[in-house]
Fold:
Amino acid sequence: MYKKIAHSCLFLIFMLISSCGQFSYRANVSQGFIPTAAATANIKIGMSPTEVVKLVGEPTIKNAFYPNKWSYAEIIDLGNNNIITKTLTLTFSNGKLSKINKSI
Structure:
C-alpha cells in the first residue's frame, strides 16, 4: 500500500517539476512575411509598384501616412528569449521604386 502511494507521489512530483521551468518546451512562433532571397534579388530600382507586387507579393504593412513606403516584416520568437526580426522596406517616388532597405 505504501509502495503505491510512494510511487504515485514520485510520479506527481516528477510531472510538476517537468511541466515548468527550463524543462518546458516552447514552439517557435513566426509572425509576418518576408519574401525569399531569390525574389528580393530581382527587385530593382525604377520598377513600378505592380512589378514589385508580381515579384514579392503585397506588403505586410502599408502605412496610411506614407503610402509610398511599403514594409515587409517578420518576427520569429525562438522560444528561448531569442527573437529574430527581419525587415524589407521599399520606398517609391513618382510611381517608381527609389530605395530598398533590407535587414534580413
